[in-house]
What we know:
With 255 residues, this protein is α/β, with parallel strands linked by helices. The protein has helices at residues 5-19, 34-40, 67-76, 95-102, 118-126, 141-153, 165-173, 194-199, 218-224, 235-238, 243-250; strands at 46-51, 54-55, 59-60, 81-85, 109-112, 131-135, 157-162, 178-182, 208-212, 230-233.
Amino acid sequence: MSQEFLARILEQKAREVEQMELEEIQPLRQTYRLADFLKNHQDRLQVIAEVKKASPSLGDINLDVDIVQQAQTYEANGAVMISVLTDEVFFKGHLDYLREISSQVNIPTLNKDFIIDEKQIIRARNAGATVILLIVAALSEERLKELYDYATELGLEVLVETHNLAELEVAHRLGVQIIGVNNRNLTTFEVDLQTSVDLAQHFEEGRYYISESAIFTGQDAERVAPYFNGILVGTALMQAEDVAQRIKELQIDKG
Length: 255
């Protein structure tokens, strides 16, 4: 995988944003606050379940999936939130997927995309997302703060994604409440679950941490369960023959 892969994605996003219309802000979809749920349910490793048809690292994952049925299965089996890929070029996602899923579930939905502009945040909210993703590696610290504050003002929660200690420290400096640790390096696309274990040594009280990528089995989940409030899982669930059983394997009891 090219070292410039993240740069290629961000160049594509810049082109998309340039063509994107500024939407009028619509009412925020009502559901519970993710941070409140994580605070009040720390007895179990919570699963953020992802809907994605493809990825740059794996290619096609599950193109024929009924996205709404998949999301409803996630919800019925205790997922705390549905993550929806909306990037069309690299992940074969679509904003309509977020819109359709958000209209058919009662739990929070995350707009999983490479957000670099306020216009994308408005689109996410209007499509039913209650949480957006901001990636530290994709933004300057100043721009990250601007977008974080803007999303928060719109009533959205923000999952801020980090991959190394320097990025984690940025999230801490900005006072971020929900922090993701991506076990995938976005420049090489290599994955290593040890990333989460190592960064956990620098976590701070009063924040909520999500381990992302490279989690496929209950054994993987057990490795990060002592340190994290939740995990974000996509490929393992999209490929599972029994989605309900796979979710249950990942919901590690921390009692």
